[in-house]
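User: Hi! I'm working on a homework problem where we have to compare a predicted structure to a textbook description. Could you give me the structure for the chain below?
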Amino acid sequence: MKIEKQILCAQRLRRTPESFSWVDHRLVRDGYLRRASAPAWALYLVLVTVGDEHGLSYYSDRSLGRLLSLSEEEIAEARGRLVAAEMIAYASPLYQVLALEGGAS
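Assistant: Happy to help. Predicted structure tokens:
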């Protein structure tokens, strides 16, 4: 059975904001989510959201911890998992969200 999509709440329909950022659907489709933990993906979501057009941002561990309700140690662990998964590059204090393999995301 094919599900027919329909707008559920037209008053709250998403629009592309001027300060656009995105999350690539390949994170789910191509199995990227299995590469890291839930706290790591929470960090990734923040980095995708706050990054500039090149995926660059420089939030401190303290600020990221406050945003995500994680300790600085948990932020460091999450960051390490994302680096190991080749999802971000990090050179203190600079983060870069990397393009997914095989695409221009």
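For your comparison, note the following. The CA atoms of residues 48 and 97 lie 7 Å apart. The domain at 24-97 is CATH 1.10.10.10 (Arc Repressor Mutant, subunit A). Good luck with the assignment!
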